Amino acid sequence: MTDAFQPQAAHKFSFGLWTVGNIGRDPFGHPVREVVSPVNLVKLLGEVGAWGVNLHDNDLVPIDATAAERDQIVKDFKQALNDYGVIVPMATTNLFSDPAFKDGAFTANDPQVRAYALQKTMQAIDLGVELGAKIYVFWGGREGTESDATKNPLDAVKRQREAMNFLCAYVKDQGYDLKFALEAKPNEPRGDIYLPTTGAMLGFIQTLDDPSMVGVNPEMAHEHMAGLNFLHAVAQAWDAGKLFHIDLNDQNFARYDQDFRFGSHNLKQAFFLVHFLESHGYDGPRHFDAHAYRTEDQAGVKAFAAGCMRSYLILKEKSARFQADAEIQAALAEVNSGSSPVAGLGQPYTRATATALKAHRFDREALGKRGLGYERLDQLVFDLLLGAR
Does one domain contain both 153 and 275? Predict the structure, then answer.
């Protein structure tokens, strides 16, 4: 590898314990890799140059651990973070694996389950803050239905709102420096998950008691599962000032959640995403929520982690070339120039501007006949990405 593509702390690359720790089990096959301890996963991430490691509560502390076991595990983990120069920028709660959450956590019909979910999350927030996390992600993997006969969606959203309001108040009452980021997914493991897209989450946030402390954590694979354009979701979140965190991976459209290595399938989508993040000054974590192919051993897992970061940095370098390429920039200027400007367009409404626009005479036929040059521009991008320019 060239030095230009070596990860640095400034790049803010992070992985979850559940990503590099994935043992390769799927619905049709047994595990193909042995369980690796959190301490050794931190060691792996330190060796490949990652900046951060993220975790669910039970990725680190087993759900049935005693208080003494919990304290020893956390002590050893903190020592590993210090030894290998890795930090914990984000934490979250596992509210989907245990059978207690088979009908959801915050949206479950059983009030005992909803109360347990709040208790578990408060304890997990305490753990995340203890480890240094500044962002807390909520992914409602079981917050949904297989049959709409079983749960009223209005009740479900109301319950989610009550839970988020309660937890926001808890964080403020504890004096924690922590922001929440909501992660959308359309389906899997539930047949339909509530608030399935980033746009839905953005709308939901505005109904909370304190929308300012809650943003989103969009994931590439989750938007692609629904056949949507991930870049557009990220841009909407950025425009709303809500892009608190981001999950990077890759995914064939309209498939199950594949969580491939970043950049491994959809090269143009990955490029335009990196170009957006870099050119707009996104300064948050770049988290790779992906895992190695099931074909891989531990050496392959290490190659996967290094590959995610390398791919991002290669695309970052391509973004800089895109900005510096005179022909591409000229083509961009041309496609954005249009014809002559129209008075009043892009200005706030006044009666005068409205009157001027209504009176303006447009050459509709000329507008329809004008070629826009998009084919040439898109080919220039393709040539750039494939090394032909």
Answer: yes
**At CB < 8 A and 24+ separation, what contacts does 152-157 make?**
153/194, 155/107, 156/104, 156/107, 156/194, 157/107, 157/194, 157/195, 157/204
**Pair (41, 188) in one structural domain:** yes
Beta-ladder partners of 250: 260
Task: Map residue 55 onto helix, strand or coil.
Answer: strand
Tens digits of residue pLDDT in 51-91: 999 999 999 999 999 999 999 999 999 999 999 999 999 99
Instruction: Give residue-wise pLDDT tens across range 80-103.
Output: 999 999 999 999 999 999 999 999
Q: Taking residues 331-357, report their average pLDDT.
A: 87
User: Which residues participate in catalysis according to the annotation?
Assistant: 56, 59
> Do 351 and 252 fall into the same domain?
no
Residue identified by tokens 């070339």 is 321
- Smallest CA-to-CA distance from 48 within 89, 92, 8 is with 8
Q: Specify the number of domains making up the chain.
A: 2
Mean local confidence (pLDDT), 174-199? 98
In three-state secondary structure terms, 190 is: coil
Residue range of the domain that includes 349: 326-385
Distance linking the first and last C-alpha atoms of the chain: 21
Bridge-partner residues for 243, per DSSP? Answer: 216
Short-list 46, 21, 49, CA closest to 36: 21
| pLDDT score of 345 | 85
- State both tokens at 72: 């020893």
Residue 2, pLDDT > 90, answer no
Residues 276 and 375 in one domain: no
Rounded Cα distance, 84 and 106, in Å: 36
Kindly report the pTM of this predicted structure.
0.96
CATH number of domain containing 317: 3.20.20.150
State the pLDDT confidence band at 346, using cuts at 50, 70 and 90.
Answer: confident
Per-position DSSP letters for 281-322, written without gaps between them: T--S-EEE-----TT--HHHHHHHHHHHHHHHHHHHHHHHHH
In this structure, the answer to whether residues 272 and 371 fall within a common structural domain is: no
Same domain as 35, residue 120: yes
Of the three residues 321, 342, 371, the one that is the final residue of a domain is 321
User: Does residue 354 have a pLDDT over 50?
Assistant: yes
